[in-house]
Amino acid sequence: MLGICRGRRKFLAASLTVLFVPAITWIYLFAGSFEDGKPVSLSPLESQPHSPRYTASSQRERESLEVRMREVEEENRVLRKQLSLAQSRSPSHQRGNHSKTYSVEEGTGDSESLRAGIVAGNSSECGQQPAVEKCETIHVAIVCAGYNASRDVVTLVKSVLFHRRNPLHFHLIADAIAKQILATLFQTWMVPAVRIDFYDADELKSEVSWIPNKHYSGIYGLMKLVLTKTLPSNLERVIVLDTDITFATDIAELWAVFHKFKGQQVLGLVENQSDWYLGNLWKNHRPWPALGRGYNTGVILLLLDKLRKMKWEQMWRLTAERELMSMLSTSLADQDIFNAVIKQNPFLVYQLPCFWNVQLSDHTRSEQCYRDVSDLKVIHWNSPKKLRVKNKHVEFFRNLYLTFLEYDGNLLRRELFGCPSEADVNSENLQKQLSELDEDDLCYEFRRERFTVHRTHLYFLHYEYEPAADNTDVTLVAQLSMDRLQMLEAICKHWEGPISLALYLSDAEAQQFLRYAQGSEVLMSRHNVGYHIVYKEGQFYPVNLLRNVAMKHISTPYMFLSDIDFLPMYGLYEYLRKSVIQLDLANTKKALIVPAFETLRYRLSFPKSKAELLSMLDMGTLFTFRYHVWTKGHAPTNFAKWRTATTPYRVEWEADFEPYVVVRKDCPEYDRRFVGFGWNKVAHIMELDAQEYEFTVLPNAYMIHMPHAPSFDITKFRSNKQYRICLKTLKEEFQQDMSRHYGFAALKYLTAENNS
User: Fold this and answer.
1) Where are the domains of the chain?
2) What percent of the chain has pLDDT over 70?
3) Does pLDDT of 130 surpass 60?
4) Cα 616 to Cα 386: distance, rounded to the nearest angstrom
5) CATH number, domain 456-751, options 3.90.550.10, 1.10.10.10, 3.20.20.140, 3.40.50.2000
6) Predicted TM-score (pTM) of this structure
7) How far apart are CA 153 and CA 638, in angstroms?
8) Which CATH class is domain 138-356?
9) CA separation (Å) from 6 to 1, 9, 76, 352?
10) What's 679's DSSP letter?
């Protein structure tokens, strides 16, 4: 492509020479016809010897100029002839240089497709893409399965949203895991003019499971073959992308390429940039049949309506069956079968310029796809090495990828001006709720936070859980921000059961967490920990939203509602499972209290038994939790009784009680109006009491709070009077709501508050 563009520039320069050289020559002659600032006429009459201005020297000068003019005209005539010959030879000449001009579009091999390739170039001198209508919806299909692929999809989508100017409709062929993750993500992302449809990948397995595949993508790597059957019958065209794609331009430019398809062209593909299909990578290397170097299927333009009319399903199935008789399995999943079909039917393919799929794997010719990195349009990390691939510009590519990886997704919630979004019930309800708030209220920001929709990425890391046969399993639930990451390894060492964590992070912090987790042997050895990222937005720490997210996504019948700063005693997981059975938690509304203690020492020899803990209490190494600043929070636990207790005992609710409890998974959620510091757990325990939960203290369980620097929110609570006023207001409103909801029985909460 670049060679063609350079040829076009030479042609343009030569044409300008033909036009301007004679003009400049005449200007020169005309200017030379001035003497003493007066014009000298070149008419025959004034050239006669009897003219008063005529001299021998001027005559010689005129003759010299006339000779030079004739020479210039002769040079122009020869140049025009050469240009004419070059134009008549250009199509065949360019085709002959195909091996040197790597991004030439072949299509059906005619000159029209070659010119289309020039138009598709990056540089303005190579022409412009056909315009896409302003509000035309662009359809994109992606096959996505599993936890890691879901993370990759987010980066791809960010790069597309960053550049886009058109409405988008994503068609996601996803397994159950990816659907759960991405459905929640897009629902909470709330990007205008973006529609998401899901198609069950598990239902499609039977369509391709008969094809043996050695590629690491597994069975899902074959599902692009069945898109004509999977996607809606009224969908005429779609761009199909791998999850490891990064866009560096507006996807509408690629969508516009559909207008260049001619005849029976139904597939838009970029030539494969490695030597795989040439069959010379190693001894006895035998790839599937392909046309030349073959084509890469990381980026595909599909004309679905024409493919259906051509009976694409029958076409690829017959080809696959025939080739599998000798090849036995695919090595590159769907790509092998696409290439085998194209080998037999080359008229199907429209070859895209290779900057639409710059394939960054080792030993590719990707560097021939661009003159400068600014020319790039689509980067494809199609090597298993991903960011560690070899390429002289890999730092640029890596930085571009990392830019979108860490880009604040909230900034992509921008409206498309002039393109009305489809009505969204959730968005409309949210706007209605926000409009009912009084912006002049001094507590407006607190009230608004209750309705803020935080973008949420569930199961950020791989998660596996095998349900316990006895149905007594307990999940530890907690929430944290970046400054508490150091607690994760310790908690995992103390608690061997499943854990559900909600992490409040920015996009950049989420990647830091990912690197931290992947570098930790302790965390990587645990697959029963669910990490759910709630992305930062607003000025408050949404502590109860985080707790609700972690609670909602547990896989066990019971949960231990803890905080990230606490280390559970060794063996607590098994002890709680036995207590669940002993106290019949399945059939009674109980909240089992795990007594809380604290240490002021950063280095602690953790007590391995209740007896050892009591000894440390007596020595002043440990204390009952918050005894010196907030006694009321845990006083009802009755630590004096706990010291000698050998059986569970019941305690009554009291004002400001906020113990850490084990409950069934169907317990009420935390109230979202409480953010930052203050009353977030107290309100939840109050509601448990209102719902007639019985509080039972476990005699042989304990947890210890580890010291840390004060959080930003507790600092605001202590230093900001308005913060404390608003918290008091929210507390009173919560108590009133409790009275309205639970009736006469809830009046005790108002009385207890007044007496406390």
Assistant:
1) 138-356, 456-751
2) 79
3) no
4) 52
5) 3.90.550.10
6) 0.80
7) 51
8) alpha beta
9) 9, 5, 22, 19
10) S
